Amino acid sequence: MTGVRVPCVIVLAGLYQAGAAHRLAGRRMGGTRLPGVQGGTEGDEAAAPGRRATPVEVGIRARPGGTATNRLDPARSCAVHGPWNMGRAMSSLPELAVLFPNEPYFLGNTMGVMGEPLRHLYMAAAVATLQDLDRAVRVLEIGSWIGFSTLTWAQALDERVPHKGSILCVDPWASYWSPAEIQAGGVMATMDFMARSDLSYNLFRHNLTFAPPGVRIDHVRGRSEDVLPYFADGAFDLVFIDGDHRYAAVANELREADRLLADGGLLCGDDLEHQAPASACAALDPAIHYRQDPATGVRYHPGVTRAVAEALGPVSAYEGFFVMRKLGGGYVPVDLSGRTASIPRHFPPALKASIRSRFG
Ligand SMILES: C[S@@+](CC[C@H](N)C(=O)[O-])C[C@H]1O[C@@H](n2cnc3c(N)ncnc32)[C@H](O)[C@@H]1O
User: Fold this and answer.
1) Which residue lies with its CA nearest to atom 19 of ligand 1?
2) How far apart are CA 351 and CA 343, in angstroms?
3) Residue 147 Cα: closest atom of ligand 1
4) Is ligand 1 within 6 A of the CB of residue 347?
5) Which of 44, 86, 325, 353 is the 20 to 30 A CA-CA neighbour of 96?
6) pLDDT of res. 73
7) Burial annotation 319-358 (CB, 10 A radius, 16+ → b, else e)
8) Who contacts 185 (Cβ-Cβ below 8 Å, separation ≥6)?
9) 170 CA to centre of ligand 1 in angstroms
10) pLDDT tens, position by position, 139-192
11) Residue 244 Cβ contacting ligand 1 at under 6 Å
């Protein structure tokens, strides 16, 4: 099917105040479109003007802001002490609320902002394709970490679909790395520490207090393989897979997502940097999260590449974010190119600036 492509307007973050869009002078990026899709196109995906919605029952509400007298400078604390010290310094939810009373906190771009940030614009654009649903959109997020992607879904549900929606997050917030990966240090070792100290879980809960109040957010603390079997068939309109990236976990989540998705819903996931035919993926190591191909230098997640190839074949993907629509028992690509997107409000200022400069 041919789709009507609209000229892309990147509406910049911070332009939305109390639900009303204010475009700043000179920031309208007419003629710039979200870069194109890998894969085919799906029906008429033209963006519609935002419609305001009837709020659904509120889950976690935004906390009233306040002023802390003993506030630390998070950037300096991180730079000087690293997240190890931050873990000891702010492991409880009340402590986080005192340290960061007015905003979510993501520990800089490495520990809180996972993957390519541009993916979040496509995530919001994907939500907008569900605007014709006559009910609140039900999102299942597998793997939430400290809530960066959860807040993106929440803002998109708040602003881009008429009946808003709900998000159910499933994550054990527990260690899941192998001893060798932890030993190697770097991001995996830091994530491991954050999970063991409950810092990741408490940051997740703290950060979600800044979600739009009209979007319900619940979470289940457990591994997808243990939790998902309890959910009913067709219970979700969008399933986002971003948990354990090893093959067995992703393959199982894709199977479960197929059962859990309503017809017309979106099957999405993160970290598909590389696609290959299933036959070429069989040799990919199922036990590792992440690798850099020594020949090409490409960094990718072999478990995601292989599981997606086997379950879905080639998929529509944007900067590593893949999305397919379930239709009549099969899956069709989703064309997001040319759709509008806004930089999420919770992006740290440096990240907003870097995205603006890429589209400026
Ligand atoms: C890459 S992080 C998620 C990042 C998050 N979606 C974001 O973009 O901000 C992966 C998350 O998956 C979680 N996880 C690991 N194993 C899991 C499992 N078996 N089921 C569900 N989540 C899992 C980890 O605890 C971690 O929080």
Assistant:
1) 223
2) 9
3) 9
4) no
5) 353
6) 34
7) bbbbbbbbeeeebbbbbbbbbbbbbbbbbbeebbeebeee
8) none
9) 8
10) 999 999 999 999 999 999 999 999 999 999 999 999 998 898 889 888 888 899
11) yes
What is the model's pTM? 0.79
Give 272-292 pLDDT, tens digit per residue: 999 999 998 888 889 888 888
Coil, strand, or helix at residue 251? helix
Instruction: Take atom 5 of ligand 1 and give the residue whose Cα is closest.
Output: 144
Cα(43) to ligand 1 centroid in Å equals 32
CB atoms within 10 A of CB 65: 9
Where do we find the tokens 């105040």? 17
- CA-wise closest residue to 339 among 22, 11, 33, 20: 33
**Which protein residue's CA is at the shortest distance from atom 16 of ligand 1?**
244
Work out which ligand 1 atom sits closest to the CA atom of 224. Answer: 20
Of 113, 144, 187, 253, which is best to mutate to test ligand 1, by the most ligand atoms within 8 angstroms of its C-beta? Answer: 144
Helices (H), the chain: 74-89, 93-99, 108-111, 119-128, 148-160, 179-183, 186-196, 199-208, 224-227, 247-260, 278-281, 302-312, 349-359
Residue 327 bridge partners (DSSP): 330
Instruction: Decide the pairing of beta strands 291-292 and 299-300.
Output: antiparallel
User: What pLDDT is attached to residue 283?
Assistant: 85
**Six-digit token string for 325:** 């629509």
User: Angle, nearest 10°, between helix axes 199-208 and 186-196?
Assistant: 80
Q: State residue 12's pLDDT score.
A: 26
User: Contact at 8 Å (CB) between 108 and 347?
Assistant: no
**What's the confidence (pLDDT) of residue 5?**
29
Residue 359 has pLDDT above 60, yes or no: yes
DSSP, collapsed to helix, strand or coil, labels residue 329 as: coil
What is each CA distance from 76 to 56, 82, 198, in whole angstroms?
40, 9, 22
